[in-house]
Amino acid sequence: MNYITALCPHCKKELQLPEDAEDIVCMYCAQPIHVKSLLLKAEPAADDDYQRLMEEAFSLLKDEIFIVKNGFKNVKQNVYPSAFEKYNNLISPALKAYCLAAAGKDEAPGFFADVLFDRFQKKIEESGIKKESDPRLFEYRYMIVAFTVPAILEQHTPAAEALADSFLKVWNEHYPKNPLGKSNYDTISSGFRKKLCFITTAVCSSLGKGDDCPELNAFRRFRDGWLAATPRGKAKIGEYYLFAPMIVSGIDRADNRQAVYREIWENHLSPCLKSLEDGNLRQCAEQYEEMMTALEQKWLS
After folding, report:
1. Which comes out higher in pLDDT, residue 138 or 92?
2. DSSP state, residue 46
3. pTM for the whole thing?
4. Residue pair 247/296 in contact by the 8 Å Cβ criterion
5. Is the pLDDT of residue 31 over 60?
C-alpha cells in the first residue's frame, strides 16, 4: 500500500494517508477527513475533470433534498439525529462530488450555491409562497439551517465551508427579512440536549446575573410551561434553539457586545419580563417574537 504525506485540515498535524483511501479519521484530533478532497485541494482539477465532477454533483441533487417534510417536528432532541442522518445520506453524494470538483476552483462555491438556491427557490414558488411575510417560508428556513447547511459542513473541507458561506450570502440577499446563519450539527444537537436560554443567559451574564437568577428562571418557566403548551409554541422554541446560538455568536464577536446586550435587556427582555410579572403571557410571547425577528435580521444577515 502506498502512502502520501498531507496535513490534517483541522489540527494541521502531518499524516501519512493511504492513497486509495476515501474517508478516514485524524489520529490526532479525531476529526473526519475526506482524503480525495484533501489531496486535490493543492492540485486544481483539470477543466475536463471539473466539468465532469460538477455534472455528476448536479445529477446527484435529488428532488427530495429540497422538499420540506414534517418541518419543525424533525428538529427535536429525540428525532433530530436520525432525521439528520437520513438527510445527510441523501445529499452527501452530491456534496462529495462538488468538493472534488471545487478543489482549486475559486468560482465553484458561488456557482454551486446558485444551483442549490435555485432548486430551493423553485420549491418555494411551487408552494405558492410569493412574499417574505408568508409564514410557510419559515419551514424552509428551518430545514436549511437544521439540515442543509449542517450537511454541507459535515464534508469538513474548505470547499464545503466556502459553499455554505456562498449559499447563505445568496439567501440573505434574496430574503433580507428572513436571514439564515451558519451552524453545524454538533451545535444544534447540543442546544437541544442542554435546553439553554441562549440570548437571555448571555444578556443576564453581561449584567452580572448568575445562571440561577430570578429573571432567567422566570423565562425558563414561561418557555417550558405556557409557551410550550400553545399551538405554535413548540415551533417557536425550536426556532429559538436553532437561531439563538448564531445570534449570540455574532454579538460576542462585536467590539460593543456589552452595549448590545444592555440594549437587548432594556428594549426587549425587561419589558417582556414586566409582562410576565403582570400575568400578560401572550403579550410576553409577542414581545419575545419581535425581539427574535429584530435580532435575526441584524445578526444573521
Report:
1. 92
2. P
3. 0.71
4. yes
5. yes
Under DSSP, is residue 195 helix (H, G, I), strand (E, B) or coil?
Answer: coil
How far is Cα 107 from Cα 34, in angstroms, rounded to an integer?
21
Q: For 155-211, what is each residue's pLDDT tens digit?
A: 999 999 999 999 999 999 999 988 888 888 887 777 655 555 678 988 998 889 888
Q: What value does the mean pLDDT take over residues 70-98?
A: 81
CA 292 → CA 30, 180, 218, 282, distances in Å?
A: 36, 13, 18, 15
Mode of pairing for the β-strands spanning 23-25 and 32-34: antiparallel
Q: What is the mean pLDDT of residues 91-101?
A: 93
At 48, which helix (H) or strand (E)? helix 47-59
Question: What integer pLDDT is reported at residue 289 of this predicted model?
Answer: 87
Which residues are within 8 A (CB) of 261 and not within 5 positions of it... i.e. 6 or more apart?
202, 203, 206, 207, 251
> In the chain, what is the greatest distance between 2 CA atoms, to the nearest angstrom?
73
Q: Nearest to residue 113, comparing CAs of 137, 129, 94?
A: 94
pLDDT, residue 272, reads: 94
CA-wise closest residue to 148 among 157, 160, 136: 160
